[in-house]
Amino acid sequence: MSNFNIPLGLLNSPILKLQNFKNVVEAEKKITFPDVDNIYLAADRLRGVAVHTPLQENLNLSDKYAANIFLKREDMQVVRSYKIRGAYNKMASLSAEALAKGVVCASAGNHAQGLAYACRKMAVKGIIFMPTTTPNQKVKQVKLFGKEFVEVVLTGDTYDDAYHSAIDYVNSHDSTFVHPFDDLQVIEGQGTVGLEIFKDSNFKIDYLLMAIGGGGLASGVSTVFRQLSPRTKLIGVEPLGAPTMKVSMDEGHIVALDEIDKFVDGAAVKRPGDTTFEVCRQNLDQVILIPEGKVCTTILQLYNEDAIVAEPAGALTIAALDFLKDEIKGKNVVCLVSGGNNDITRTEEIKERSLLYEGLKHYFIIRFPQRAGAMREFLSGVLGETDDITLFEYSKKTNRERGPALVGIELKTKADFEPLLQRMREAKIHFEYLNDKPDLFEFLI
């Protein structure tokens, strides 16, 4: 059809632009884009398997940001994340012959649990490769969801080790590898989250925020909204320490990062998928990066204020609201809470990262004079009334005039920091501040 026969308004429509983009990319790179009709089919497949999770207005967040904030609660999914959707849809699209040979994945997190549950529901054999460093709690959860249909193989120290072992197994057993994100049926399964959001919203959605790791969830959901609600602003959210999609989109091609911060484990990958990259760079209006410390603060706030247990990747979108607060006032905003598989053993680390980010926790190397009363003078004359010492490591050096101590101090408010430094200088305390020295900080703390 010639463009001259198309009305100008339709020519500039997001749907037509998306179709033209798809045609070009599919011709050049042989990338097949997800299809909304197939996402509807996936929703039919998932009935009775995945929970239709609620879209809930959050009054605390709405008041805080003077907006209407709604949470899509995928943390309430049967496996506490959306991953069951893509895994099951992929398996349901396979032939009986392929299913008889079994399915395989590599994962240390939610994808493993999703695949395990899908194997149990479909009575299909699954082999799940996980790094030997995976916490026992996660291994037990995978076995719990998969029952007798799943075998867990612990191998290597990293995800990459587990991935290579999984591919070797697939090649030698002619099994099907179920990719965590870069697979068309997986993407379309995740897209059913978008159908539920659209169906449950009796209002115009101005902003929709989605966490990005490999990009499967964002690709599926954005495909739905680009067709059904093209004026909704679609925002992807990545952790600052793993900006894989952001860097790739800025560069205009896929970039594999050498190093990433793996703290937000559900959204920390070194390379986006071939398909997910193309879909996200066409569909998303923006990708923003959120510091891991801010994510930790949000996890604690969600638990304390709303009794929501969110994993780091699940809290990403809510953490992003602070970075959009000026433009979302008076708007209808949906934050997709992608998962709630938070390991309770990480609580102390989460609290520590939060305090550091908020400017409430500070570490010093302090050289106290080697004389009686020096420590007492520091406590009474330098520390403020609400300052609290949380770490003190000191070894007296009898042959030196001054002995170094590693000291951690927690403050009541961020504003207490400069007065503390001023009192230390006035008392002629010799100190070295560690928070802004990452190499030394990581070595000592």
Automatic annotation (TrEMBL):
What role is this protein assigned? Catalyzes the anaerobic formation of alpha-ketobutyrate and ammonia from threonine in a two-step reaction. The first step involved a dehydration of threonine and a production of enamine intermediates (aminocrotonate), which tautomerizes to its imine form (iminobutyrate). Both intermediates are unstable and short-lived. The second step is the nonenzymatic hydrolysis of the enamine/imine intermediates to form 2-ketobutyrate and free ammonia. In the low water environment of the cell, the second step is accelerated by RidA.
Instruction: Describe the protein's quaternary organization and the partners it interacts with.
Output: Homotetramer.
Q: Where is the ACT-like domain?
A: 362-436
State which pathway it belongs to.
Amino-acid biosynthesis; L-isoleucine biosynthesis; 2-oxobutanoate from L-threonine: step 1/1
| Reactions the enzyme catalyzes | L-threonine = 2-oxobutanoate + NH4(+)
E.C. designation(s): 4.3.1.19
User: What family does the Swiss-Prot or TrEMBL record give for this protein?
Assistant: Belongs to the serine/threonine dehydratase family.
PANTHER family, per this entry? Answer: THREONINE DEHYDRATASE, MITOCHONDRIAL, THREONINE DEHYDRATASE, MITOCHONDRIAL-RELATED
This protein is called L-threonine dehydratase
Give the GO molecular function terms: L-serine ammonia-lyase activity; pyridoxal phosphate binding; threonine deaminase activity
